[in-house]
Structures are given as C-alpha cells and as structure tokens.
C-alpha cells in the first residue's frame, strides 16, 4: 500500500470538497480523495445551476450573498464566465407566495408576472414575486476552476479512492482510501449523501443527515421560454422550469427520502411533471431529451453542518448543503478555511462578525 501524509484530508470530490480544497491550499498540505473515477459525479453534476440569494434559511441566504461576491471577484480576476444573471420568479396562491417570498424577493403584479412568464396560464396563479439578484452558474466550469486552482497550489487529488477505514491515534488519522494509506492531522467529511456513513466509519456520531431525491430533465418545447427569461417555480413546490442552452430544464421539485447511492429517475415521474406543466402553462413540451436524479442531503434544520466535531478531535464536518450546495459553496469554503487553518477572517477579506455568526449557526450538534 502506498503511503501519503498531509495536514488535511478531504473526503469527497463534489463542489463542497473541491471548493474547500482550492481555498485551503495556500494554508495547508491538502489531499482530496473521491470514490468515483470522476470528480463531481454525484449531486454536484445534477443541479439546476441557479444561485438564489432569497432561497433558504437566513444563514444560507447570507452565505449565498457572500458566494456571489466571491464568484464575482473570481470572474473579474480570471475572465471565466462562471455566472450570468438569471432572475427567479415564484408563482402560486397568495399564501404560498407570501410564505416563500423573503429576503431580496419583491412582489409582482399578475400582469408583470405574465409579461416575464408568458407561457404561464393566467388562471394557474394569483400571486407572484421575483428575485432579480440571482444568477445561473456554469457549474461544470466552477468545479473545473476549483480543481485546477487546487492542483496548481499543490493539492493531491485521488479519484477511484473510496475511504474504507480510518483510525485516529490521538494526533494523526490513518485513512485507507483505495490502494493508499494516508496520514492526516485533520479529516474533512465532504461526502455528501454518504457523510453520516463516513462519520461512522471514522468512529464519529452521525449528524442525522438525510438524502432526499430530486429529479430534473431537459426537454424540447414548442413554446419554450426565451434565453434570458427567469427561472419560474411554483410556490407549492410542484414544479420549476427555466430556459437552457439544450432546450428547457424542468423539475417536479420533489423532496423524497432516499438511501445514499447513484439515484436514478423513476418511470412516470417526468411524465407526471409534463402533464402538470401542461395544466399550468402553454409550454407545449414535445420530447424529453434526458433526465436525472440527485440527492439533496440535509439536517432537519435545513442548515448545512460545518465545523469541528464536538466529540472527535481532528474530524471536521462539511456536509448537509441540501439544495444550496453551489450557492453557498465559496462562502462555506471561506468559513471552513477560517476554522481549519485558524486564519484571521480579515486576512481572508471576510467580516469577522459575519463569519462568527455563520460558524455558530452551522456548527455540528
Ligand atoms: C435536481 C437538483 C437540483 C439542484 N439545484 C441546485 C441549484 O440550483 N443551486 C444549488 O446551489 N444547489 C442545487 N442543488 C444542490 C447541490 O447540487 C448540492 O447541494 C451539492 O452538489 C452537494 O455537493 P457535495 O459536494 O456536498 O455532494 P456530492 O456532489 O454528492 O459530493 C460528495 C462526494 O463524496 C464522495 N464520497 C462519498 N463517500 C466517499 C468515501 N467513502 N470516500 C471517498 N469519497 C466519497 C461521493 O462519491 C461524492 O462524489 C441541486 C440538487 C439537485 C439534486
């Protein structure tokens, strides 16, 4: 077995693990291991690619705004087109829209909503609200940006390297990952739907992280929204859709408990969604080009879990990002770096009070 030593071993090569690897690399010797032959294979390649600052609990909204700022800095410095403006509009009954329209959302009149979503049937909703501070993200490019930046700063990334055993001797972890034995001062659990399983494998109590299925599909439609149109979501969580370079993206917005694994769409789920969209819109979906399912993993509180485990020294949680993993990624990575490398937040360009509040809200139970 080949040996390797590092300060920090990150388990999981999705957006959580990769964004941390690239942010932490200047401060520590980092190794990242991923079970699959390719990075980002699980939930991180299956998202709707939208970053919505009004979405989620208050700490998530705050981390999303910080992520948008950090990504804008990256875009300005590199010229990479990581994000582009794309509004998010909620439609539904007065009470459903009122319950969800917080943060940077503002109410829209029925006529304004129909102008922005001309495919909506007028009788299908009575209230609407919009967040114009949102962006669509090129998530493949973002994953690749983090992979490359991490590699350039010396992070060793090992794929086809599932962690199968781990032991802590009081100061150092010895972790078996594929054919390698890795020594590390700190283990970071960025294992997505498998995060509680990885914790158990390390002898750490779980955080009660539960994976929930969500399906999406790319479809062709006779009356598809024009490029640049908002993403439109039903406030009762029964669908969303948005324009896509390959046609149109649709989702039934389901939140169904699942087991960790390679989730697949179920027969009938997309057909039922097409029928539902036919009742609420004049989109005229003609063909389903491809469909996929991913797992959104979260705690009951809906908040990610980020920080050192309270009972196990050297074990750091970076999990439970639910439906917010991309939109919070850079903000969470910044928080994690401040905790892992004990860096002064001001040296990271971060507001210490804001980071302190986020650390408190997201700390492991
Ligand atoms: C349909 C859908 C739409 C979504 N839309 C959005 C959106 O618009 N905006 C947004 O911000 N978020 C969205 N999300 C959520 C977002 O995709 C997730 O929050 C994010 O991808 C989670 O990233 P992760 O790195 O935690 O998990 P993952 O991408 O699943 O990565 C975890 C990795 O850990 C690896 N791993 C597990 N166990 C081990 C082990 N023992 N050893 C080594 N490696 C291991 C896995 O193989 C996996 O690659 C959506 C999700 C879905 C399903």
UniProtKB/TrEMBL annotation:
User: Keywords of this protein's UniProt record, alphabetized?
Assistant: Oxidoreductase
Name a GO CC annotation attached to this entry. Answer: cytoplasm
Signal peptide span: none
Iron as a keyword of this entry, yes or no, is: no
**Gene Ontology molecular-function annotations:** oxidoreductase activity
Record's InterPro entries? FAD-dep_OxRdtase, FAD/NAD-bd_sf
Name the Pfam families for this protein: DAO
The reply to whether Oxidoreductase figures as a keyword in the UniProt entry is yes
Give start and end of each FAD dependent oxidoreductase domain.
7-338
Q: What is this protein called?
A: FAD-binding oxidoreductase
């Amino acid at each position: 077995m080949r040996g390797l030593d590092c300060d920090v071993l990150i388990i999981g090569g999705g957006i959580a693990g990769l964004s941390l690897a690239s942010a932490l690399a200047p401060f520590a010797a980092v190794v990242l291991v991923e079970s699959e032959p390719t990075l980002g294979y699980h939930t991180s390649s299956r998202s709707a690619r939208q970053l919505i600052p009004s979405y989620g609990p208050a700490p998530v909204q705050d981390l999303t705004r910080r992520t948008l700022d950090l990504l804008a800095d990256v875009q300005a410095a590199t010229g990479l087109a990581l994000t582009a403006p794309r509004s998010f509009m909620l439609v539904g009954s007065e009470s459903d829209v009122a319950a969800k329209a917080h943060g940077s959302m503002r109410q829209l009149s029925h006529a304004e909503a129909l102008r922005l979503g001309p495919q909506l049937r007028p009788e299908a909703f009575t209230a609407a609200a919009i967040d114009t501070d949102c962006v669509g993200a090129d998530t493949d490019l973002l994953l690749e940006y983090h992979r490359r930046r991490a590699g350039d700063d010396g992070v060793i990334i090992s794929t086809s390297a599932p962690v199968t055993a781990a032991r802590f001797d009081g100061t150092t972890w010895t972790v078996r990952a594929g054919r390698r034995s890795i020594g590390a001062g700190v283990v970071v659990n960025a294992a997505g739907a498998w995060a509680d399983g990885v914790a158990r494998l390390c002898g750490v109590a779980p955080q009660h992280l539960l994976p929930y299925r969500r399906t999406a599909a790319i479809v062709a439609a006779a009356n598809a929204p024009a490029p640049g149109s908002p993403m439109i979501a039903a406030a009762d969580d029964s669908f969303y859709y948005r324009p896509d370079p390959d046609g149109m993206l649709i989702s039934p917005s389901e939140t169904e408990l699942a087991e960790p694994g390679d989730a697949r769409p179920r027969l009938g789920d997309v057909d039922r969604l097409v029928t539902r969209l036919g009742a609420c819109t004049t989109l005229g979906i003609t063909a389903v080009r491809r469909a996929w399912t991913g797992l959104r993993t979260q705690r009951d509180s809906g908040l990610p879990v980020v920080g050192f485990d309270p009972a196990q020294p050297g074990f750091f949680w970076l999990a439970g990002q639910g439906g917010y993993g991309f939109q919070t990624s850079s903000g969470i990575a910044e928080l994690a770096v401040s905790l892992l490398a004990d860096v002064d937040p001001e040296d990271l360009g971060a507001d210490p009070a804001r980071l302190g509040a986020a650390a408190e809200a997201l700390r492991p139970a």
